[in-house]
Write a structure and sequence with these properties.
Layout (H helix, E strand, L loop, with lengths): L3 H23 L11 H13 L10 H26 L5 H4 L2 H30 L16 H26 L9 H11 L5 H22 L7 H10 L30 H9 L5 H5 L1 H4 L6 H14 L1 H5 L19 H5 L6 H5 L7 H14 L7 H11 L29 E4 L1 H6 L1 H16 L4 E2 L10 H5 L3 H18 L3 E4 L2 H8 L10 E4 H11 L14 E3 L13 H11 L4 E2 L27 H10 L5 E4 L2 H13 L6 E4 H9 L4
Parallel strand pairs: 1-2, 1-3, 3-4, 5-6, 5-7, 7-8
Protein name: Electron transfer flavoprotein-associated cytochrome b and CCG domain pair iron-sulfur cluster-binding oxidoreductase
GO molecular function: 4 iron, 4 sulfur cluster binding; metal ion binding; oxidoreductase activity
GO cellular component, one term: plasma membrane
Length: 659
């Protein structure tokens, strides 16, 4: 075995050298603090990395769960194997007491069998029943690398059974505690072959594959075996919908133009991606034929880093652009603008990679440094700057919805809640009906509330997600100043985009508001008996409930809308096939509300088609953007028999006197 020692040292040297190269590239990213709250991070790492919470959320994930834990358990077995090669005469049986050794080798034997079965299933999945999302432009489920890694693992298991079988025949291992290897022993004993020769063959097969695996691991996508666990530790502990602030000063550059403008965590993400395709499968843009593929965006970071390695380390301009024409390592502008920031990719990723923030960072560069953006956004940006709403309507029109109601302005110390109506609720003719119903509900429950009227400004959600951080920053500062001056601490909203912006984004500006969405407030009022219903609503027929991405996935509000509909109608609402965490976007998030879809099919039509498959009479929403997208989709589908209602409209029906 004297030759094994230098081979092992070479393999370890290659492993350390390759890992060092990758880590040195990660260090080129901008600094970011991901070491806060270590206890919570440790718990999340245990839950998502070792517990494989998101992996097993899908049935085939159990197969990966088996492979992962087999890898963990067999680390000790492979460690013992390496020590046998380095130290003459070393045997684990001589180190451990029998009471511990026998159960341990039994575990190794059974786990190896499960691992081999899981590898066979993995081969079958890639060859026979391959899901479409396993493939992308630059990644194939049937790539040489994929089959090589699977073959490595299978060979390690086979070599282990063969080697243990030889040892059992020679009386060196307990057959009764190694049932699988005992079967191999019977086969080898009856083969007539030389046992020493077989033992040498299986030992060197195991050694060769193991050393090759050690060398190849950091050079392949399977480096995620090393990085995925810490990536779960370094995950974003804040809201999934927020973006980092920018500091505006003369000479500063904004957004991400080249790969090293990303943070080290963004670059670490690129080496942690398992290329499982779950984000691709969940992405509404990808599902409707757009060029955006979240997996490909993450892959582009790694490919760009590796392609520009020498130039970046030498401080030279990158040779392969991050944003530009089609090609591996680059992202087209069309791809960057296709994202709805719905968070489906975030929710699906088993190793907590953060996709949308990377796209928004590139949008920031295009908007703030190059003034390059889709033409239809020009009016939006101008209207926001000049009149603080997407339509450019005069601020004096904000409270016109209340013309027929006795609505009072918010007064510090006298009014409990600010009803932050939002732009859609103030100016959109359809959403103004929802606003009136929300106000009616608040009055019926005896809530102390008021509005800012013409002094209310847009929250800036679309601006931030579209990359116009400069105007968002100004708008946020102005809003925070107004809230502080008026003594606002509690806010009611009817728009999930206002909800997440005021609740999460504005914390970056030093204000902690108690923000509640109207669906949550209505649920609380009903449960407390403060809101008395006059009847159960039946005329809306069969109701199907849509989960808004910014209310549900980004803020975990799922129960309240369902409980309200059930209480008001006396029936549990029908669910979409894709519901709750797996809800499919309406297509309006990420500023896409103000943009046309030039490629593929419309996202809202995909969702409307799914709704119509359940034959509903009413689609219930809790977001003005969703309201617009569903109503437009129903018109395109000529499905006028199906109506769209906000949850507040359903409740308002129950407040009307029984006939």
């Amino acid at each position: 075995m004297t030759i094994f020692t230098p081979l092992f040292l070479i393999a370890i040297g290659v492993f350390i050298w390759q890992c060092g190269k990758k880590l040195s590239l990660i260090r080129l990213g901008r600094p970011e603090n991901r070491f806060d709250n270590p206890s919570l991070r440790l718990w999340d790492m245990l839950l998502y990395a070792f517990g494989q919470k998101r992996v097993v959320a899908r049935p085939f994930g159990l197969n990966h769960f088996v492979i992962f834990w087999a890898f963990v358990v067999l680390l000790m077995a492979n460690g013992a194997f390496i020590l046998e090669g380095l130290i003459p005469g070393f045997r684990l049986a001589n180190v451990l007491p029998t009471a511990l050794y026998h159960p341990l080798v039994f575990a190794f034997d059974i786990v190896s069998l499960f691992a081999l079965a899981a590898i066979v299933l993995s081969f079958a999945r890639r060859l026979i029943f391959k899901p479409a999302y396993l493939d992308s432009a630059y990644v194939s489920a049937r790539s040489f690398e994929a089959f090589l890694i699977l073959s490595f693992i299978a060979l390690l298991m086979i070599a282990s059974f063969g080697l243990n079988g030889v040892k059992i025949v020679g009386g060196l291992e307990p057959a009764s505690f190694m049932p699988v290897s005992a079967v191999a022993a019977n086969m080898l004993a009856g083969s007539g072959a030389s046992l020493p020769a077989l033992g040498s063959f299986f030992w060197w097969l195991h050694a060769t594959v193991l050393l090759a695996f050690i060398c190849f691991l950091p050079m392949s996508k399977h480096m995620h075996i090393l990085t995925a666990i810490p990536n779960c530790f370094f995950q974003n502990l804040g809201s999934t919908s927020t973006q980092p602030r920018e500091e505006f000063a003369v000479g500063n550059r904004y957004g991400v133009e080249k790969v090293t403008d990303f943070t080290w965590k963004d670059l670490f993400d690129s080496f942690s991606c398992t290329e499982c395709g779950r984000c691709q499968d969940a992405c509404p843009a990808n599902a409707t034929g757009k060029s955006l593929n979240p997996r490909q965006v993450v892959h582009s970071l790694k490919a760009n880093l590796l392609a520009n390695e020498q130039a970046l380390k030498a401080g030279e301009p990158p040779r392969v652009p991050l944003i530009g024409a089609e090609g591996e390592g680059t992202n087209t502008e069309e791809t960057i603008w296709a994202c709805t920031t719905c968070g489906a990719c975030l929710q699906a990723c088993p190793v907590m990679i953060e996709h949308p923030s990377k796209l928004v960072s590139m949008r920031r560069h295009l908007v703030e440094m190059k003034t390059t953006f889709p033409e239809e956004l020009l009016n939006l940006f101008e209207n926001m700057e000049q009149r603080s709403n997407p339509w450019g309507i005069a601020p004096s029109e904000r409270a016109k919805w209340a013309a027929q109601m006795d609505v009072k302005p918010f007064e510090a110390g006298k009014t409990e809640y600010l009803f932050y109506v939002g732009c859609a609720g103030s100016f959109d003719s359809r959403s103004k009906q929802v606003t009136v119903n929300v106000a009616t509900i608040l009055d019926a429950a005896g809530i102390s509330w008021g509005i800012l009227g013409k002094d209310e400004k847009c929250c800036g959600d679309s601006l931030r997600r579209l990359g116009n951080e400069y105007v968002f920053d100004r708008m946020a500062r102005e809003n925070v100043e107004i809230f502080r001056e008026r003594g606002v601490t509690k806010v009611i909203v009817q728009c999930p985009h206002c909800f997440t912006t005021l609740k999460n984004d504005y914390r970056q500006y030093g204000i902690e508001l108690e923000v509640i969405h109207h669906s949550e407030l209505i649920q609380q009022l009903l449960d407390a008996g403060r809101l008395k219903l006059n009847r159960q609503v039946s005329e809306l027929g069969k109701i199907i409930l849509h989960d808004s991405c910014y209310l549900g996935r980004h803020n975990d509000v799922y129960k309240a809308p369902r409980q309200v509909v059930a209480k008001v109608t006396g029936a549990v609402p029908t669910e979409f096939d894709r519901a709750r965490e797996e809800s499919f976007c309406c297509g309006a998030g990420g500023g896409r509300m103000w943009m046309e879809e030039q490629t593929g099919t419309r996202i809202n039509l995909n969702r409307v088609t799914e709704a119509l498959s359940k034959s509903p009479d009413t689609i219930c929403v809790a977001c003005p953007y969703c309201m617009t997208m569903f109503e437009d989709g129903l018109k395109d589908k000529q499905a006028g028999q199906t109506k769209v209602r906000d949850i507040a409209e359903v409740v308002a029906e129950a407040l009307r006197p029984a006939q």
